[in-house]
Amino acid sequence: IIEKPFGRDLDSARELNAAIGEVLGEDQIYRIDHYLGKETVQNILVFRFANGIFEPIWNRFYIDHVQITVAETVGVETRGRYYDRAGALRDMVPNHLFQLLSLVAMEPPNSFGADAVRDEKAKILQAIQPVGQEQVLHRAVRGQYGPGEIEEVGPVRGYREEPEVGPDSATETYTALKLMIDNWRWADIPFYLRTGKRMPRRVTEIAIQFKRAPYVLFRDTPVHHLPPNQLLIRIAPEESISLRFGAKVPGPGLRMGNVEMDFAYADYFGSSPATGYETLLYDAMNGDATLFQRADSVELGWSVIQPILDVWGALTPRGFPNYAAGTWGPWEADELLARDGRAWRKCE
Ligand code: BG6
Predict the structure, then answer these.
(1) Which residue among 65, 96, 224, 225 is the active-site one?
(2) What separation in Å is there between the alpha carbon of 80 and the centre of ligand 1?
(3) Ligand 1 geometric centre to CA of 108 (Å)
(4) How far is the CA of 34 from the centre of ligand 1 (A)?
(5) pLDDT tens-digit readout, 255-295
(6) Is 119 left (phi over 0), alpha (psi -120 to 50) or beta?
(7) Neighbouring C-beta atoms of residue 82, cutoff 10 Å
(8) Mutate which of 2, 38, 68, 72 for ligand 1 pocket (most atoms within 8 A of beta carbon)
(9) CB-CB neighbours of 91 under 10 Å
(10) Cβ atoms within 10 Å, residue 88
């Protein structure tokens, strides 16, 4: 069983795969990504493929865009030595965020067998539109936290003051990306990804934003603007799925409010969230590799972010630290969506 980081770029991941491949067969290797052991993450497959009502609208005709957020309140704790050589992009994106992205975007597999599922996930990573080096500045944002205050933690120091981090470190603790998937289901539908440390709240969620109703039917009423429907898959802190839609506010006249239909794991199953590792270690002992990373997926993940690593490695970031601890990241991340006429979801 091999835990991430699996290499630190595409070349080193290839070398590592080749070296391990000389002594073990692929079916003997379990590359662990603890996100795949989380119940809500696995539930994405059940939600999409065990229910008939969602799949017909799960495409570019009904979905406007998708946002994936992994926000943490923690800083780098005692891991400065590792983290300062890694950064948010390497630490979180080709592994955890791409797992979430592929489960949301993949085609239905032929079966629930390890290779059938992993083949479809790999196809999504292959379909991500390559981010050319010249596009990196428009498609990727990096940030580093300075000192600040987080409601549930109190005042905290900046990243450069953390143990084992250099006083002029250029490592990013926040990243946001805009990715496009070049296939028939998703052409022209952006997937916005963001992850950062020392954010105001711990939130891991996938927000599917649907297209608006085609026009506002309610003439001569206070309803001029129809907020889009949203499906929210929450992975942390609580595990839940909710669907947001508009409803009439009771009373004379026509006023509209946003309401949510909620399913919380704890209410139905009374389960307490586990870290993910428990399930995965159990599966490995049973020889079930469905929830483990195959060599090709690891390399595909790295190949998507390699141009960003190259450009960022070559250009020293300007203005670091560029967000205060306890805020939602640098303003460039808001710009990334504003340029498309969109905004990040406010994670309440
Ligand atoms: C790890 C990263 O893989 O995932 C950490 O190295 C990060 O930096 C952690 O904090 C997040 O995992 P979870 O389960 O707390 O969302």
Answers:
(1) 96
(2) 14
(3) 28
(4) 9
(5) 888 999 999 999 998 876 678 899 999 999 999 999 999 99
(6) alpha
(7) 12
(8) 72
(9) 22
(10) 23
Q: Does residue 84's CB lie within 6 angstroms of at least one atom of ligand 1?
A: no
Does a cis peptide bond (omega within 30 degrees of 0) precede residue 167? no
- The region, left, alpha or beta by phi > 0 then psi within -120 to 50, assigned to residue 282 is alpha
Tokens of residue 283, six digits: 């599966």
User: Could you tell me which residues come within 8 angstroms of residue 286 by beta carbon, excluding any fewer than 6 positions away?
Assistant: none
Residue showing tokens 């129809």: 226
- In short, whether 204's Cβ falls inside 6 Å of ligand 1 is yes
Q: Report the distance separating Cα 118 and Cα 103, nearest Å.
A: 10
CA angle 181, 187, 191 (to 5 degrees): 45
The answer, yes or no, to whether any atom of ligand 1 lies below 6 A from the CB of 67, is no
Question: What is the DSSP secondary structure assignment for residue 181, as one 8-state letter?
Answer: B
Strand (E) or helix (H) holding 259: strand 256-264
Q: Do residues 69 and 333 touch, judged by C-beta distance below 8 A?
A: no
Q: What is the pTM of this model?
A: 0.96
Give the tens place of pLDDT for each residue, 165-181: 999 999 999 999 999 99
CA distance 288 to 286: 6
341 torsion bin: left (phi>0), alpha (psi -120 to 50), beta (else): left
What is the C-alpha separation between 288 and 292, in angstroms, rounded?
9
Q: Is 96 a catalytic residue?
A: yes
Strand pairing partners for 341? Answer: none
